[in-house]
Amino acid sequence: MRMLMKSNNPNILIVDDKLENLITLERLLEHFDVDLIRASSGKEALAHLLDNDFALVLLDVKMPDMDGYEVAELMRGNSRTKQIPIIFVTAESRGDALIFKGYEAGAVDYLLKPLNASIFRSKVGVFVDLFNQKHALKLKTLEFDQKLAELEELQQQLEETNEQLLMLSTTDGLTSLYNRRKFDDIYLEEWQRASRSQNPISLVMLDIDHFKLYNDTYGHHKGDDCLRTIASALQAMDIRHLDKIARIGGEEFAVILPDTDGDGAMLVAERARLAIENLNIPHETQFNKVTASFGVSSIIPKREITPKFLMKAVDEALYESKKRGRNGSTL
Ligand code: GH3
Ligand code: MG
Ligand code: MG
Ligand code: MG
């Protein structure tokens, strides 16, 4: 507890024009964990007040140049200092009027010299405790703010991770199309929507022709390349945003076409069939290139019909296309 020592202790400013009074106050406050800062004039006191945070000001009333009331008045006019508690310590005892003036000037207390040590200490102690409390709460608030920022950062990360996870769990690794799981979800959703709206829903399913032979001829690696190329061609097709393409099996793809009837779905199937054919990927079949066979099915869902019905129908149509010699579409 020496002057102008920078510590975490609360600062108390003691203002008196007489050195012996300053020393007396310092002695009385010896046992507090506080840093005492001396000022021997009002001007000096104000300079300190603007420079430091204080828990309390012990302010002499009678001083040359600027008296304690003036100091208090100036403190009240400054936002940095107006909250700092002031205890007047004075030899002035000329009655209540002066004490009243002290309170008017913003003092929290008005003590007369000679001071009663224990009363003085307990009064100062209240403000030291409050200041310490305030300081601790401020620190906690800062800590909390920091934690809050960390939490926000973590929440952001969690969201991103969830998005990635969702992406990965719904996407086919080879082609980046929707996978079977996502296809099933979308299909069920669209089926329900069509049930409500009583608009037709259609499915286009395709299976690459003689793909086992392709793998056997060119190798599995080239087979994968071929699947990727076909996936890109399907994605590049001119279809509506609503139409969803998925890889639903090894070399099988499907398109869900909401609000689309059989004729519309057949057009999509033919466009896809041509898109694949026009890739001109060499293959040792009757077409000398990679082709695919298509099944198309369409329905307006009725109460007694389950979503499986349309899946079965599209499967059968695809099988029919295979039977008819491949590279074609069947409704
Ligand atoms: P079909 O014209 O009757 O459809 O004959 P297919 O050979 O295409 O039919 P099949 O079902 O007998 O064979 C499908 C083949 O597709 C089996 C497998 O070698 C190949 N295949 C399935 N998934 C993949 C894959 O992810 N990568 C590669 N390279 N080949 C795959
Ligand atoms: Mg004095
Ligand atoms: Mg197949
Ligand atoms: Mg096949």
TrEMBL record:
| MF (Gene Ontology) | diguanylate cyclase activity
Residue numbers carrying 4-aspartylphosphate: D60
The GGDEF domain, residue ranges: 199-331
Q: Give UniProt keywords alphabetically.
A: Coiled coil, Phosphoprotein
**Listed EC numbers:** 2.7.7.65
Per the UniProt entry, what is one GO biological process? Answer: phosphorelay signal transduction system
Task: Show the coiled coil region(s).
Answer: 137-171
Q: What class of enzyme is it?
A: transferase
Pfam family example for this protein? Response_reg
> Which terms in the GO cellular component ontology are assigned?
plasma membrane
The record's catalysed reaction(s) read: 2 GTP = 3',3'-c-di-GMP + 2 diphosphate
Which coenzymes or cofactors are required? Mg(2+)
Response regulatory domain: residues covered: 11-128
Q: Which InterPro entries match?
A: CheY-like_superfamily, Diguanylate_Cyclase, GGDEF_dom, Nucleotide_cyclase, Rev_trsase/Diguanyl_cyclase, Sig_transdc_resp-reg_receiver
PANTHER family in the record, alphabetically?
A: DIGUANYLATE CYCLASE DGCM-RELATED, REGULATORY COMPONENTS OF SENSORY TRANSDUCTION SYSTEM
Q: Which NCBIfam families match?
A: GGDEF
Name by which UniProt lists this protein: diguanylate cyclase
